Each structure stands twice: as C-alpha cells, then as structure tokens.
Amino acid sequence: MAATTATSMVSGNRVVTVLKDLASRPSGAIGLTLVIFHVALALVSPYIVPFDYKLQNSSLMLTGPDAVHWLGADHLGRDVFSRTLMGGREALLVTGVATPLAVIWGGFIGILFGLVGGRLDEVLMRVVDAFLSLPWILKMLVLIVTFGTGVEVLIPTLAFFYGIPVIRIARAATHDVIARDFVWAAKARGHSRISIIWRELLPNVLDTLMVEGAMRWSWMLLAFSSLSFLGFGVSPPTPDWGLMISDARGFMSFAPWGVIGPVIALSSLIIGINLTADALAKALGIDRAQKAPM
Amino acid sequence: MLMMLIRRIMLGIVTVSLVSLIIFAGVEILPGDACTQYLGEYQADDELLAQCRKDLDLNRPALERFQEWAGGAVTGDLGTAVDGKTKISTIVGDRLKNSLLLAFCAMIVGVPLALLLGVITGLWRDRKPDLIASTLAIFAMTIPEFVSATLLILIFSIWLGWLPGIVLTSASAPASEFFPEILLPVIVLSLVMCAHIMRMVRSSVIEVMESDYVQMATLKGVPYWRMVFSHALPNALLPAINVVALTIAWLLGGVVVIEVVFNYPGLGRLMIDSISDRDLPVVQSIALIVASIYVCVNLAADLLTMLANPKLRTIYTRK
Q1: ipTM above 0.90, yes or no
Q2: Per the CB < 8 Å rule, is A274 touching B138?
Q3: Does B45 share its domain with B151?
Q4: How many CB atoms lie within 10 A of CB A21?
Q5: Segment B43-47 mean pLDDT
Q6: Contacts of B295 in chain A (CB under 8 A)
Q7: Quick one: DSSP state of residue A288?
Q8: Domain count of chain B?
Q9: What are B165-187's pLDDT values in tens digits?
C-alpha cells in the first residue's frame, strides 16, 4: 500500500499527467478551452472593448445589431457587445476567490472531524444537515440583505455556505482512507493529528476535493449569476451577465439581442466548467455521477 | 428494522429542531430587527421604536420568544407577519399550495421521462441515443434556470405565441386557473430535474449491467429483455429514489428564480419578497417549512429504499 505524501501528489509530474489526460478527452479539451478563453477574456476585456461599458447614448436606445454595435444597444443605449465581453469579470473574480476558500475550509473541517469522529463528529453532522436542509438562496439573501451586495460580502458568504457540503464530501472521503494500513502506521508511530491530516489523509482526499472544487465552482457561478439576475448581486452600472439578462428581459419581444449575447456567454462558461469537472473526475478516476446534486 | 426506523425519525426531528434554532439565532444576531425595518426612516424616534418593540413583544428574552415561536409552530400556528395583523399561516398557506401544484406537475412530467431516458441511455451506452440525450442533459443541467426560462419564453411565447410567458393568476386562485400559464414553468423545471435524475439512473444502469449477477444470468441464457426487466432494472432503479427525493425537496424550496421569471405566486417568491421587506417572522416560517419538507422527503426516501432493498433490510435488523 503506497502512502503517497502531499509533496509527491502535487508534484509537477502528476499535474502534467492529469492535465494531459484531461486535454485528451473531448469533453476536457472543449471544457478547458472554454474556461481558459473566459478567464483570458476577463483579464483583457477592459483593454479591447470597442466602447465604454457605461457610456449611455439615448439615440441608440434598443437599436439592433449593425456594423458598429455588433450586438446592438440596450435600453440605456449602451453597447451590448462591450458589456457582454466584460460581463464575466465580477463573476469570475468572486467565484474564483470563493471556491478555493470554500474547498479549503470545508475540506479541513471535514477531514479533521472524519479523523476525530465520536460525539463531536455526530453533532457537527447534524448541524451540517440542518444547514443543507435550508434553501441556498434563503441563507445567502438574509446575509446579503443585511450586509450589502459588495464583493467583500459576496465572497465570504459564498465561501461559507458552499464550504458546508464540502465538509460532508471530505468527511466521507476521509472515512474511506482512515481504515487503511498507512494511517494506522502513522498513528502507531505517534504522529500528531495535524501531521496525519497533512501527510496521510490530505494527499488521498485531494483528488476528491479537486473534483468537488470544480463542481462547486460551477454551482457558485450559477448562484452568483442568479443573485445578480434577482438584483442581489452586482450593482449597476457594472456589466454582469445575470444583471444584463434581467434588464433586457423586459424588452425581449422587440429587442432580443440584449438577452442573447449574455445568455451565450454565461452558458458557455458554465458548460465549460462542467465539462472540465467531468473530465477531471474521469482523469482522476473518481465517479462523480454517483453523487447527488447540491 | 423498527429500531432503525425510530432512529431515523429521531434524527429527522433533531435536524428540524436545529434548523429552527439556527434560523431564530440567525435572525437575532443580524443587525436590525422587525421594528427598525417596519418603522423605516422613523426608527430614529426612540419612543416609536420602544412602542413598536413592546407591541411586537420584542423586549422579552430571546429564549422565551423562541420557545413560544417553536411551540406555536408545532401546532401549526406560525404567528403574525410584521404588520402585526396578517396571520402567517394564511399568507404561507396559499403560496405553499401553489408551490405544491408546480412541483407536482413538474414531477409528473419529469420523473417518468427521466427514468425512461436513464434506462435507455444506460442500456445503449455510448451509442447515438445516449450521446444525444447525455449532451442535452449537460445543457439542461448546467445552463442557469433563468437563462433557459428566458430562452423558452422568447421562443414559445414571443416568437411562436403558443404558450403564455407569464403567470397573472392571483395567489389565492384555485389550482385549475393556473392552466395554461403554469405550462412553461413546468417545462423548465422538468427539464432540469429530468437531466439530474437521468444521469443518475444512467450510471446506475451501467453499473448493474456490468455486475456479476447480470453477466451470470446472460451466460445462463436468460433472454436479454427478461434479464433487463427482472434482474437489472429493479436494482438499478433503487438509487434513483434518493435523487428523486432530493429533487422534490429542491422543487418545493429552491425554485425561487423560476418563480420570479414567470411571476409565479409560490413559496419562493414570497421568500424573496419577505427577505427584501425584512419581514422576519414570515422568513422564519418559510425556512422552517422548507427545511421540514426537506427532512421528511429524505426520510421517506431512505425508508422506501430500505423497504425495497432486502440487503439493507437485513443489515439494519442485525444492528
């Protein structure tokens, strides 16, 4: 039984192997391309957009696509194409920071309680159950309505609530590992709990956590854009796909171009992340289809 | 078996109690209360604030109020909304009925379709029907609900004009009046749930079809379809019970976005409205109802799985 250590697990070789495997699968290749494209776009879009995203021009109000404004203009006469290009920045920033945070705190607590077990573990699992039984939007909205909709509220809120299901996953994965010989050996050698978590458990749970993180990312993005759509996310005039769709929906019957751009952009990003997560699960040999949604 | 049953029910009760505690504590800890919200700009007036807190009984210790609220909730009395007059059970009652209607319709369409598609894609794995259905499922699962809903409204209601794109019926109207307005939301919801359940069933069918006993049956010369129906499917469909349960819980508590898009007067929209208005008593009640539904549905699913699966039954008897 090979006890892989943290250092060897994250070493360059394995990352390269997994990435190669990932890119060799059709879903992984398409997914990675979409994700990389969107991340790159988010980084460079402010410098390449043809128009200022908040520039209002009343003479352009709701005009259709033409050679100058490729996707037409919205109800305030702003260029839809420019806004679509920039519409993922806030979403990627928030979810890009919140996802690792969620996986780290949820993963740590899950592994720790999986290792410790006993009464405390039992109590924690009931609390986790209780949190999971509440609808996500209710938990988040209560905090957001109280503290505001800024990035500094959204990141910790998303990270906190999306870390809770990770606790469960990490705990279950820990239970699978914990009975194996090398963990017993480490215990017998008198290693501390932190050392067992870091050197024995984490490397073996890491794969599960990575796949979980990729999935959480797409769900978080879904949650973020839904919040924006409902008016609880990004505040105007910042361009955001969810908000843009919500704004343009009212004029959809005669100006559908306001909806179509952000719809394609948002969908392609989320599909990209999902495809990547799927391929990652297969590349790492974890069957994700068995797990229930949310 | 009986012990297991009792244990599971006790755990469910513990979870719901914890939820009520979390909700209540959450509302207490957050800054502001029902009175600061109700009074709005007048909250600076200390006298008004004090009067309001006295009227709404907010001066008593939190623990005492929690006992009263939780005690009332057990008997079905959820208290009054922040205006101090409207009974919460009447507001919530209508919305709950509408949400149940929506969930019921979506299930009737979605669950059989999902099971059928899951079995088909599982049996014909990696062939054309599977590839088409699985690709479509990825789209249905990943595209945000407000996006698919918006697209469907654009296509079916604006361009084709086949179905109404928005619900105009009032919350207290009888169920029959929601047709045909309910159809588009039902289609969107059943698409999403269908995709989730289908994927689950598909992988479960594949797993069972590769198992030893199915291969054994094939080698013994059991006809293919008899083997599928009497050996494979009963086992393959067991795990579906839990996914269906999760989906039902989601339908009854989490379809806020769909309800907003279609202006459907269900529990989800009431939730958003009362959070925006900071009508905390209503928010607490909805949270409690939704969490209880979640716990009950999951409990029911576990029990069903136990009853249907002889293997699990004996494990629990021995324990």
Answers
A1: no
A2: yes
A3: no
A4: 16
A5: 68
A6: 129, 133
A7: G
A8: 2
A9: 777 777 677 767 667 777 888 88
